[in-house]
Each structure stands twice: as structure tokens, then as C-alpha cells.
């Protein structure tokens, strides 16, 4: 485990002590990795490697040959991930640091200088390690981010549907509260299937709609342009497809949550009280996020005002197990 900075008293005053003598620094880029080790370990102590898997294995072999135990690297984009994992698998203590925290080296910037600067700072214990979750928590976080991207894509297709209808002067969005609700989707599907009779389309609306059938029928008197109908169908099909992808993503997230709960040996009804607040259904995952969160943290943070199923899932995938330092929902609320 890498050590933090310490000072020693000398005749001339306090002096930083080398606490990680077996440290290396790696400057990460898209196509190459610059690796620096202490100059007493190899005659060529600052080497450039490629980015292919074989190159990453060569880095591991060279670091082992140089008796390196801990490595510091910058979190550059996503390029650090493969090397980070392969170093961890081979027993190295890897310190991932934010690039902006170490870019204080004056003069001409080079990859060699950056790698040496990282190695030097790490040898003195001056680097702050970025948080890295366990493998299951990382998988959940990656899938949650993927789900967010799918939701954005779904929203774009919903806007495309609305645009196509507006261009045909179909004002359905003005008379029903949610174009993507049961009534709106039933009417859109009927339009795509060739039914352009406003009265018949209005009858597909749910009884709980505030607008009357007559008003809904009036909003559905349009031009029925062939090109706009084609755009509406394509946007509708894409929206349905992406919604299916989101459901598949939810199943995958739930599978990893189950594994994570088993990994933590944390599944019990003791102390669990379901929050009585109304939880919105729109875009929410279709599994019991509240219960999984309680099993991981042993506290139901759904009681926090403003906490939703989506924000709860986001916190869970970002923080993982480490949120359990909060002891109770009361301390969550007061914080």
C-alpha cells in the first residue's frame, strides 16, 4: 500500500522523506504510455511503450524486473482503464490521480517529464488517490451511465415524433398532458397504422384525460403529409426499440446488484422500512432500487426530501459500498 508524505528533522530543518522508494510514474495517452522508474533500476529508466495489449504486458514485465511495487498514473480520458486493470491483476498498488492536480511542472511539457514528475511526487507520497469502486460497483456504474445515454436517445426520438406531428398540424400535445403516455402512444400507433380519422383516434384516449373527446378529435385534424408520416413512424420505431434496450439494461443492472449484495453478504429484512413517499414511474428502473440500496448501505436514504429512484440509483452506482459510513437515515437527513 502506497504511503503518504512524511517529514524528518535534519540539521538544516525539516525535509521530505522518500516513503515509496519502489514507485513508478506513467503518463497516459491514446497511442502510447510513457513509463518512468527510479534511475537506479535501469539504465533506460524512462521508456515509451505502445497501447496494444502486448505492450501493456511488456510494461508489467519491465516494472517487475525493476522491482516496482506501486504505480501512479493520470486518469486521462478512458485510456488508463486497460493498463489500470492489468497492473492490478498483477499485484501492483495503482494510484490513479487527477491530471489537473499534478500539472504544476514549469517549462516545456513532454511525456518523459510528466512521467518522471509523477514518479517523483509518488515517491514522496504527495499524490492524492482518486476513488475507485470494486469491480461489481464499477460494472453497475458503467451500466447506469449507459442507461442514461439510452434515456437521452429516447428523449430525442420523442422530440422527433412531436416535431413530425407539429409539421402536420396535429396538436395532440396541446390537449393531453403526456404525449408518451398510454393515450398518446395508442393514438400515434393508430396513425402510423393508417387510421387518420380524428373521431376514431380520439376514442383511443383514456377516460381519465381532462380534455373531452371532441377537443382531442379537433386537435387531430391535420394534413397527413406522406413524408412526415414516414418520419413519425421511424421516430416511433426507434423510441420503442430504445425503450426495450433500457429494460434490458435494467435487467443487467439488477443482476450485478444481486451479485454485489452477495459479495457484501448483505441481505436482510432487519431494520428495513419502506419509504411512504410517492415514487415517480417515469424513466425509473423497473426493479426495487430502494431495497437494493438498503441492503448495500443498511440505511434507507429514500426518506431524504427530494430523493427519487433515479437519483438513488445514481448515488448507489457512484459511491458503491462506501456510503455505509453514514450510520442512519437521520444522520443522512441532517447532513
Notes on the structure:
The protein is of the alpha/beta class and 335 residues long. It has three domains: 7-123, 2-Layer Sandwich (Nucleotidyltransferase, domain 5); 147-249, no CATH class; 254-334, no CATH class. It has twelve helices and seven strands. It has a five-stranded mixed beta sheet. Helix 1 packs across helix 2 and helix 6 (182-192) packs across helix 9. The radius of gyration is 28 Å and the shape is elongated. Mean pLDDT is 84; it is low at 324-335.
Proportion of beta-strand residues: 5-15%
CATH class of the largest domain equals Alpha Beta
Second-tier CATH architecture of the largest domain: 2-Layer Sandwich
What oligomeric state is this?
single chain
Mean pLDDT: 84
Named CATH topology of the largest domain: Nucleotidyltransferase, domain 5
Task: Give the low-pLDDT segments.
Answer: 324-335
Provide the succession of SSEs: EEEEEHEHEHHHHHHHHHH
